[in-house]
Every structure is written in C-alpha cells, then in structure tokens.
Design goal:
Elements lengths: L1 E4 L14 H9 L3 E5 L10 H7 L2 E3 L2 H7 L2 E3 L6 H4 L7 E4 L7 H10 L2 E4 L14 H18 L21 E5 L3 H12 L3 E6 L2 H10 L4 E5 L2 H8 L4 E4 L25 E4 L20 E4 L2 E4 L9 H22 L1 H7 L1 H4 L2 E4 L2 E2 L2 H7 L6 H4 L2
Parallel strand pairs: 1-2, 1-4, 2-3, 4-5, 5-6, 7-8, 7-10, 8-9, 10-11, 11-13
Antiparallel strand pairs: 6-14, 12-13, 14-15
Helix pairs in contact: 1-2, 6-7, 10-11
C-alpha cells in the first residue's frame, strides 16, 4: 500500500503521525511511504532521517494526498485539506466528528474512509489510541492550569502547592478516566488539595485506593458540582463519551458561583467540551475570560510537547496502521473488532452512531459497508 504522511497544518500542531522507526516498519512489510517535507521537524525528526529509513520526501501537501492510498495524520483535516481528499482514500487520524458538523459534512461529501483514532476500542471498552494523548493532556492540564493561576496571566495569584503556613490551592477534577487520573496525580504531586468526581462508584473506589492522601473522591452530580466549584481555584474538565459530544457539567450560570480568577481547563473541548462556556482556542491564543473566570480551551494540548506526544502516539497507532496497510481497511476491520469500531464515515455514510446522533444525520450500520 502507498502511505502518505502530510505535515500537520493546524495552529501550532507540531506532532507528526509517523516516526522514522515507523517508516522502517512499513518498508519491512513491503509498503511505500511518502512524507511531506519538514513534516517531522517540529517533533525533532529531519527529512534525512525519514529518507534513511526508506521514505520518499515530497515537496507539498497536495503531492502527498494525490499519491497516497492511506493518509496517516494526527489531527483532523482542516478546510484547506478537504478538496485534496479523494473518494475511497483511507484517512487514519483523530477526527472528533461530534464536535464539528462542517468536518462531518465535508468527509461525507468526499466519500473518504474515515477511521478515527479516538473510537478504536478494545473489548474492555478502553480506547488504546486515545490513552497516550489523554495521559499527556491530563498532565499538561495541571501545568497550564498552574501557570494561568498566576496573577500576570489573569488568575487568582495562587501557588498550587502553597508554602509553610499557607494553604495550597484547591483543584477540582471532573471525570475519573485517564485524563482525570493523570491530572489528579500531577496536582497532588505538586501539593494541591484535589477533589476528583465521577459517576462510577467502582471507579471512585479504585481511585480512593491508588491516590495519595491529598486526593478526595466525590460522586458527580449537579448538586455536588455546584458546591465544589465555590471552593475550587483550578477546575479540570476531563469528561469523555467515545465518539459523542461531552455533557455540560458546568453551565454559564455556574461561573458566578466561582471565585474571580478561577481557572478552567477543558480537556474535552475537542469533543464539544464539558464546560458550556468553553470554545476551542489555540496555543497562540490559549485563553479568554468570561465573568472574571479564565478559560483555557486548547484543542490540541499535546501539540505543545510534540517530541513526547509523537513518540507516545506512534507507539500506539503503528501496529494498527500496519494491519490496515497489510490487509486493506475492509479485511482489517472485518478481522479486528477494535479497528472496526474506529470506522466513522465510509463512502459518504455515517457508520458511528455517536456521530449521527450529534448532528441528527442518517446512520448506516457498519455491516452494510463491510458486507
């Protein structure tokens, strides 16, 4: 199969979908790999390193899309890429369709095969291609939150861990999944008082066992959320429903119950966000203020640490990408239930229920396209 890796063009997205080691694996399996020039430079990988591994460097993004049977990316295509996508071309990347109606309609129109990292799902319901970036984003959420709590950045002027004789900050984490767990661990490690909320009692029991003493677990419901936000200095939104929009746990009216200078970090913003007032921002302009509350809503947080993120992501995606290349997407998805669940849009049809429900569009059962 012919594999194409374009340079990411989303604002300040420095990750790349394939490392030179990944190129070598594709070559070992008999595939051809084309890399757009400078695609890996933001992550520390030169064109020469890719060529040495066996890739061919192409000068433009247009050339990569034109020649490739499978496009491997990190982030969803943006508007300028839509016209480059060909019918029956396989795109393997993060899509987050439930947060963009425009992207959904564009991929339906292009009749591409859209296999989304974020909905590839194991039998135990874990999301293997979301986990590495969730780990990075959860840890980064605390780094960024701590920074924006500083007074010059618009925050309350609070040090997360406090000092002798001065209480530490209160951190509220909404969601006890991968993102929330990593965020709570980081905040606790810095000495903050942490409260983590979830709707699953078994998950809360697990977190109670593994978290340090400065982390409290609380059942998530509207009453408890409203009470907790009054005390919080930093609030992390870490709620995910695979392939669907995140629910709004914090609504606009709740902002008035928070202390001025409180910082909100919505890690779920690329799935619509779990904080009603959050809209996607970029690393260039990461924050905005509503009702004296600082909102940090960067949709590609791991893009700020591309070396770590690229290696973590490609470690997870490469085995699946090799299967797709070796067998073709149809056979690979028939034989691998995990990959089958990654299919979101196929030849103009939505085959993932969460996407069809998000935009009230017709749903086609996956069995109809994998006959």
């Amino acid at each position: 199969m012919i594999i194409g890796v374009p340079k990411e063009i989303k604002n300040n997205e420095n990750r790349v979908a394939l490392t030179p080691a990944g190129v070598a694996e594709f070559k070992k399996n008999g595939h051809t790999v084309y890399i757009q020039t400078l695609a890996g430079v933001g992550s520390g990988f030169t064109d020469e390193a890719y060529e040495k591994a066996g890739a061919t460097i192409l000068p433009t993004i247009e050339a990569v899309y034109e020649i490739a049977e499978m496009i491997v990316k990190v982030k969803e295509p943006i508007a300028s890429e839509y016209k480059l996508i060909k019918e029956n071309q396989l795109l393997f990347t993060y899509f987050h369709f439930a947060s963009s109606e425009e992207l959904t309609h564009a991929m339906i129109e292009r009749k591409a095969i859209c296999l989304a990292y974020e909905t590839v799902e194991k039998a135990d319901r874990s999301l293997p291609l979301l986990v590495p970036m969730s780990e990075v984003a959860g840890r980064m959420a605390i780094q960024e939150g701590a920074k924006y709590l500083e007074k010059p950045m618009g925050g309350r002027g609070i040090l997360l861990g406090g000092v002798a004789g001065v209480k530490p900050a209160n951190v509220l984490v909404l969601g006890g999944g991968i993102v929330g767990t990593q965020a709570a661990k980081m905040a606790a490690g810095l000495g903050a008082n942490v409260t983590i909320m979830d709707i699953s009692l078994p998950r809360l029991r697990y977190l109670e066992d593994v978290m340090p003493a400065n982390v409290d677990t609380v059942m998530s419901n509207e009453y408890n959320v409203r009470e907790a936000i009054k005390l919080a200095d930093l609030i992390i939104g870490a709620v995910l429903i695979p392939g669907a929009k995140a629910p709004h746990l914090i609504t606009r009216d709740m902002l008035k119950e928070m202390k001025p200078g409180t910082v909100l970090v919505d890690v779920a913003v690329d799935q619509g966000g779990c904080i009603e007032t959050c809209t996607p921002t970029t690393h260039e302009n990461p924050t905005f203020v509503i009702d004296e509350i600082v909102h940090y809503c960067v949709a590609n947080m791991p893009g700020a640490v591309p070396y770590t993120s690229t290696l973590a992501l490609t470690n997870a995606t490469l085995p699946y990408a090799i299967q797709l290349a070796n067998k073709g997407w149809e056979k690979a998805c028939k034989e691998n239930e995990e990959l089958k669940k990654g299919l979101n849009v196929v030849n103009g049809k939505i085959v993932y229920k969460g996407v069809s429900e998000a935009w009230k569009l017709p749903y086609c059962h996956i069995s109809e396209v994998l006959a």
